[in-house]
Write a structure and sequence with these properties.
By secondary structure, the protein is of the alpha/beta class. The chain has two domains: 111 residues, Rossmann fold, CATH 3.40.50; 125 residues, Hypothetical Protein Tm841, Chain: A,domain 3, CATH 3.30.1180. Helices cover 40% and strands 28% of the residues. The protein contains eleven helices and 13 strands. A six-stranded mixed beta sheet has the order 10-9-8-13-11-12, sandwiched between helices. Strands 2-1-6-7 form a four-stranded parallel beta sheet, with helices on both faces. A hairpin with a 2-residue loop joins strand 3 and strand 4. The longest helix is centred in the last third of the chain and has 16 residues. The protein is globular.
Length: 274
């Protein structure tokens, strides 16, 4: 490939897929008390889920440094790089990526997504690069893939989003007071409430229906994400496999950066239309 593709750890690509497709992944950082770790490098989702459930614990997250991006670009060995990252409304990662351009030609794509919403965009960029696409074509492939992707998710509680400042405190208080199980989505690059359902089982059933509707009867690629909820994710995945016309299907556990804001028990479905 003459154009290198870089993304960040919040894509939560299945293990081995980034290497297989020639994608360089730059990890974000998470701070838990006096420990700072690199997501997906020296902190596993299971370790993080155990830690965050402790009373009063709040993790903070931060984007990679420009120096980390510069090192990643150098390691790619390409003079042209397309860097595809999580929504600029959720993180300063894209800005840090842009600051590390140096002498190389760089295109930074704000996917407006996270999780496999970002991952599908990075995979589309890698496909274009593998076919010999120009830097503009590779960046356009990522942008177009992101635009055809919808991210829907369920959280057991809005408390983690409230702690992280990713959703208004009032919404968290209302949800807690009414024992509501919220469904959310990524809209215009930000986390937004979608629906409120009374029980976890009804919320997950509704998540399934929304995902199937999003598929629209066409061919799609789908990812199911979870944190510390492997059994629920597997059951949801089985039901979606039976109901959708699939090109690819992935099940992955999110790491600390998204997990810090959603908490254990989260389930997400990412639908990418072809």
């Amino acid at each position: 490939m003459t154009v290198a593709v870089v993304t960040d750890s919040t894509a939560y690509l299945p293990e081995g897929l980034a290497a297989e497709r020639g994608i360089t992944v730059v990890p974000l950082q998470v701070t838990m008390g006096d420990r700072t770790a690199l997501e997906g490098v020296d902190l596993t989702p299971a370790e993080f889920a155990r830690w965050i459930t402790g009373a009063g614990r709040r993790a903070t997250t931060s984007q990679p440094t420009p120096a980390a991006f510069e090192a990643a670009y150098d390691a790619c060995g390409a003079s042209e790089v397309v860097a595809v990252h999580l929504s600029a409304k959720l993180s300063g990662t894209a800005s840090a990526a842009a600051a590390a351009a140096g002498d190389r030609t760089l295109r930074v794509v704000d996917s407006g997504q996270t999780g496999m919403g970002l991952g599908f965009a990075a995979l589309a960029a890698a496909d274009s690069a593998a076919k010999g696409g120009s830097i503009d074509e590779v960046a356009a492939a990522a942008e177009q893939a992101a635009a055809r992707t919808r991210t829907l998710f369920y959280v057991d509680t809005l408390e983690y989003l409230r702690r992280g400042g990713r959703i208004g405190a009032a919404a968290a208080l209302v949800g807690t007071a009414l024992s509501v199980k919220p469904l959310l989505h990524i809209a215009d690059g930000a986390i937004a409430p979608l629906e409120k359902v009374r029980t976890a089982s009804k919320a997950i059933a509704r998540l399934e229906e929304l995902a199937v509707a999003e598929g629209g009867g066409g061919r799609v690629s789908v990812a199911v994400h979870h944190l510390a909820s492997a059994d629920r994710a597997a059951a949801l995945a089985d039901r979606l496999r039976a109901r959708l016309d699939l090109d690819a299907f992935y099940v992955t556990e999110v790491g600390a950066v998204v997990g810090a804001h959603t908490g254990p028990g989260m389930l997400a479905v990412v639908v990418h239309r072809h």
